[in-house]
Design goal:
Layout: H1 2-16, H2 29-44, H3 47-66, H4 70-102, H5 110-123, H6 143-147, H7 149-187, H8 192-195, H9 198-209, H10 214-225, H11 230-300
Keywords: Membrane, Transmembrane, Transmembrane helix
InterPro entries: Ion_trans_dom, VGCC_Ca_Na, Volt_channel_dom_sf
Subcellular location: Membrane
Length: about 300
């Protein structure tokens, strides 16, 4: 009895030290599978693994850029193609590990589906009518978005800003339409190439909004014929280039800030939950140790 109690105390002490021990029981195969999956999950979510994948993505982007040079391809084209195939194999293995680690949850994550789609496109045969797929290999560089958290936050902010941007798009379309109709009526006869039709006026006004050669290329030639046309173009630029576009920027910045705050709140909540679980485990371990000590005390008496 004393030896059994001592063995029990030894097992309890090992548990309290957070070290796995085998106290005369055999681990079930399902537990071994779960342990393996947890280890793989820890691997694919570790910082070192993410750093390695980022390095591979950057290397792949560089090699694909070098393939656009005929001189480089003439010298080391075979080596670059070999590197490309090796990198593709690394991506496939990484996706298989992530699929094994996360199971069906892998297909519920939008970023995982994004990575899966890019790698799937790369695996398709780029021959015959599908030769255009070779040019899509550079899409692998976009995997940096799914790997780097800061880039994910930017995309998340842009997606979150889409509902708010809808009203701004409608406002801008209305402003463009009104000014395009006015420009077609006012300047269409003298400048049919720029304002002869409603479509031409819309395109010309879009060029003016981007401030690309708007003064010397469009407005000043119009002012040579219509000296007071600046009364039309200046308000248009103020309404579009400086007001409406700044509204776009403001909505995007606000959405990105909300995305960052939501992520910070989620991290704090996760830390709080983990802390509570750890405290519960510590209390349970203390109770087990007390019970084991009581058993040892009874055995000694």
């Amino acid at each position: 009895m004393l030896f059994q109690s001592a063995a029990i105390l030894h097992c309890g002490t090992e548990i309290a030290m957070f070290r796995p021990v085998h106290c005369g029981t055999h681990e079930k195969p399902s537990n071994r599978g779960t342990s393996m999956r947890n280890q793989v999950r820890a691997l694919v979510t570790s910082r070192n693994w993410e750093a390695c994948i980022i390095g591979v993505i950057v290397l792949n982007a560089v090699t694909l850029g070098l393939e656009t040079s005929p001189a480089v391809m003439a010298e080391v084209g075979g080596f670059l193609r070999l590197v490309d195939q090796v990198i593709l194999g690394i991506f496939v293995i990484e996706l298989m590990l992530r699929l094994y680690a996360h199971g069906l949850k892998f297909f519920k994550d939008p970023w995982s589906l994004f990575d899966f789609s890019i790698v799937a496109i790369s695996l398709m045969p780029a021959t015959g009518n599908l030769s255009v797929l070779r040019s899509l290999r550079i899409l692998r560089a976009l995997r940096l978005i799914s790997v780097v958290p800061s880039l994910r936050r930017v995309i998340g902010g842009l997606v979150a800003a889409l509902p708010g941007m809808g009203s701004i798009v409608v406002l801008m379309a209305l402003v463009f339409y009104v000014f395009a109709v006015m420009a077609t009526k006012l300047y269409g006869e003298a400048f049919p190439e720029w304002f002869g039709t409603l479509g031409a006026s819309l395109y010309t006004l879009f060029q003016v909004m981007t401030l690309e050669s708007w003064s010397m290329g469009i407005v000043r030639p119009v002012m040579d014929v219509y000296p007071y046309s600046w009364l039309f173009f200046v308000p248009f630029i103020l309404c579009t280039a400086f007001t409406v576009l700044n509204l776009f920027i403001g909505i995007i910045v606000s959405a990105m800030q909300e995305e960052h705050e939501a992520e910070a709140d989620a991290n704090r909540q996760a830390i709080h939950v983990d802390t509570g679980l750890i405290l519960e485990e510590v209390r349970a371990l203390r109770n087990e140790v007390k019970q084991l000590q009581a058993e040892v005390g009874k055995a000694r008496t």
